[in-house]
UniProtKB/TrEMBL annotation, chains A, B, C, D:
All copies of domain DAHP synthetase I/KDSA, residue ranges: 7-270
UniProt entry tagged with the keyword Cytoplasm: yes
Keywords for this protein: Cytoplasm, Lipopolysaccharide biosynthesis, Transferase
Catalytic activity: D-arabinose 5-phosphate + phosphoenolpyruvate + H2O = 3-deoxy-alpha-D-manno-2-octulosonate-8-phosphate + phosphate
Enzyme Commission number(s) from the entry: 2.5.1.55
Pathway(s): Bacterial outer membrane biogenesis; lipopolysaccharide biosynthesis; Carbohydrate biosynthesis; 3-deoxy-D-manno-octulosonate biosynthesis; 3-deoxy-D-manno-octulosonate from D-ribulose 5-phosphate: step 2/3
The name this protein goes by in its record: 2-dehydro-3-deoxyphosphooctonate aldolase
Top-rank lineage group of the source organism: Bacteria
Annotated compartments: Cytoplasm
Organism: Bombella mellum
Family per similarity comment: Belongs to the KdsA family.
Amino acid sequence: MSVSLGRFVIGQDQPFRLIAGPCQIESRDHAFFMAEALHDLCQELDIGLIYKSSFDKANRSSVNAARGVGMTEGLKILSDIRSRFDIPVLTDVHAPEQCAPAAEAVDVLQIPAFLCRQTDLLLAAGKTGRAINVKKGQFLAPQDMQNVVDKLKSTGNDRILLCERGTCFGYNTLINDMRGLPIMARTGFPVVFDATHSVQQPGGLGTATGGQREFVAPLARAAIATGVSALFIETHQEPDTAPSDGPTMIPLAGMRDLLVSLKKLDQLVKAEIL
Amino acid sequence: MSVSLGRFVIGQDQPFRLIAGPCQIESRDHAFFMAEALHDLCQELDIGLIYKSSFDKANRSSVNAARGVGMTEGLKILSDIRSRFDIPVLTDVHAPEQCAPAAEAVDVLQIPAFLCRQTDLLLAAGKTGRAINVKKGQFLAPQDMQNVVDKLKSTGNDRILLCERGTCFGYNTLINDMRGLPIMARTGFPVVFDATHSVQQPGGLGTATGGQREFVAPLARAAIATGVSALFIETHQEPDTAPSDGPTMIPLAGMRDLLVSLKKLDQLVKAEIL
Amino acid sequence: MSVSLGRFVIGQDQPFRLIAGPCQIESRDHAFFMAEALHDLCQELDIGLIYKSSFDKANRSSVNAARGVGMTEGLKILSDIRSRFDIPVLTDVHAPEQCAPAAEAVDVLQIPAFLCRQTDLLLAAGKTGRAINVKKGQFLAPQDMQNVVDKLKSTGNDRILLCERGTCFGYNTLINDMRGLPIMARTGFPVVFDATHSVQQPGGLGTATGGQREFVAPLARAAIATGVSALFIETHQEPDTAPSDGPTMIPLAGMRDLLVSLKKLDQLVKAEIL
Amino acid sequence: MSVSLGRFVIGQDQPFRLIAGPCQIESRDHAFFMAEALHDLCQELDIGLIYKSSFDKANRSSVNAARGVGMTEGLKILSDIRSRFDIPVLTDVHAPEQCAPAAEAVDVLQIPAFLCRQTDLLLAAGKTGRAINVKKGQFLAPQDMQNVVDKLKSTGNDRILLCERGTCFGYNTLINDMRGLPIMARTGFPVVFDATHSVQQPGGLGTATGGQREFVAPLARAAIATGVSALFIETHQEPDTAPSDGPTMIPLAGMRDLLVSLKKLDQLVKAEIL
């Protein structure tokens, strides 16, 4: 089942779409700066872009970590980006009551991995009719995403994306089971690979999450070769000074080369292999 | 740091306290039946009891699974049990706005494992001043509970309990790292061992969570020998027909023998070993 | 560092080479039948072939499982295949004293995963001067293969291949960490991906190892997209009746399509991406 | 099924026996020094002792690590310790041809964890008629030890001990699944808990294995509370200068207190709980 989103369709037989943006909305100016850069790049490379950014980082490791601009301000910025660049936008929701207002402003509601089994959140998100991108919990087997799908479908919404972002492997480490991609695809819904959160090392820095940015590219290639509908890649013009997820984000300046190679691979895989 | 709760104190140098009850509040009559049975048993065995039950099962595997009596009705029942039997009661909260009303009715607010990093929930719970029992996420290393503690302490609340309930081990399986008990105890707060959720097999039954009830007793003994402040054990007069967590709950009729042996062990460990 | 093997070179910048054959040598006739089929196929597709088969299955789950034709008979068959088809051959060794005779008969000695830390076996294998394919133990981190490399290099032998075949993930399950491929490549030696043993479910059938043949193709694609020097794929004309590893082997009749698609992918990756 | 060993019996209903000694035989003098100290301590505490030491460390992380005094010299020392102190002795074997000579010198042959599926080694060990202590592989589910038992029993030998020493948990970390103890006991054979290897961090020091000595005591208590026939504890008068396993061995000076507390616990558990 494919999911239409403005001028393009997300589906296993479509070119990969890109969900990208900085981890959090740092300011209106920064958000527009990033959106413009990504919009221009994706237009040049002919890659369907969904702009992603969070208005609240609701589960930071430390209570002292930056959480973002807040919902009202954040949704306004995202909505304005949507209008300005005519691109779909995505943000994550953390509570049922955030779903309706977020659905006014964005095209895709994202369910965070830790919350993928919270029934009320799934139902509230589903009821908006917006496309839903659910991250597979780090604690969940890929086949168990069928139960998540069933919760969403019970609302009459079948605009569902299932996203791999790593599975617990010992302490402070995630691993990607590439078998999980075809397993989740058995639900019939498009599968997304989150290449930047997959290289997180949760708690690896004590009061913050570490990461292994150098593995984003090979893991993204592996996922594309397995077959996915979309890639999720967080990016920042200066990741090492970003307020969150710096160790995993891809420098904006490196996005072009990465995307060019991923597009070649995806084209071959979908044209001649799958 | 010990946590006072009515007539007893929960602490690493105190006899183990028992957090027990059926997984969910099935009805007023059933809740009173269970509370009376546990109250009488614990009075006879001289074990400090905290009665536990959920008013809402907010993260069931399947959307069709029974969720409980709801918050208003559930909190009333728990509050009445507290008055009737003069025992502390505990329930779990899933959203920040549930914390204040729940704190009116119960003595201990419990943070579910999947939600142990949700900052707003922790802060709202902490602000009530009630004792907080936080389940360690299945995705979290025991040392990373320090960050959870710091979030709670930032509210001025230091009535904190840290609870082990299993860690992800491959798919559909949890494992208890007994090293996690002394590691969590380094925070200075009492450590609880949840013996029944530890034997869950999440998703093991397709649309429901399976379990290995036969390992509750040996794991509880292992935890006590390591050294804990409290045990968490769900129980039911007829687990196999319970609306949730049947495969892991201990039959009520088996609680006496289990508690008698655990008490002997705990007494020896705290008197002569630790 | 590349490894020369007859008419071709195994290296990260070379087209992928194929290590293939039935799990065990069932008989002279069967071995020749399989070798001829693979030789013809690889010649047609222009893929460098190393024929693989075991003379002894030394660590079967059950004592009653078929172990093979024995070393003397087995090495004679492999040596004759090498002469008859003019292709390099590979077999696994399980004890230091097998290394010298095996080195007379074959071009590559393979160290089984369970034995990858047995110093005497590594040293005896290294001393033969033959190329060595070491399977990474299911219990070993990829970065710890450096220690294995150092043991082999201490014999003056630097014709080393490092092979990923899955890592323990809970019980009875293996997982491939695709990050392990570039991590092992940091040693400077060619990296092999074993696509059929990676989908084993050890002990999954009680007295035998199960498997998930349907994931061989996507995992092989993922590995190639990450970048490898060789693929290891066991195959059989009728896997379900094979004396060992039936649940994981690829039907001989399916090899052509699989190899054609893997070759296209490998060509693109090495020409335009890596 | 219990296993007789000289003047005592190893069994699930017997007081725990102690397998102890330094990791490797460093010299005749050192071995006698350690054996005398352990013999005297165990006699005083009335604990059945099996003296353990290795003549060869066959799977060290690094090729440069000390391997021991060799088989001939090592077996002579162990045999002399057996005579001198009239205690059973145990050593590990790594190749089938070591089994017969080792069986001349020692009472228990131990199969290393990495080698627990090597059929020839198990059969050769079994055929000696000596008691066999098999370490469960770090890669093996506890229920799969039944296959190992069946291999040994096929030789007519039923003097079998099954030993837990940790299971793979992510990279460079082991975890003890305490459920594994009763699961292995279902085979009918005595279960041993190896408290010092269980706290290894394989590869944790780069070219050597690290460890967490501080968890030996709590894990040993947890195992005893679960119910075991024997404990395996490596010890050294000065662990930090030992040629192997220093980070995990217990200082000899700390053994008395540890054993006293473990004995109290074991007595209670076996008298009143199991």
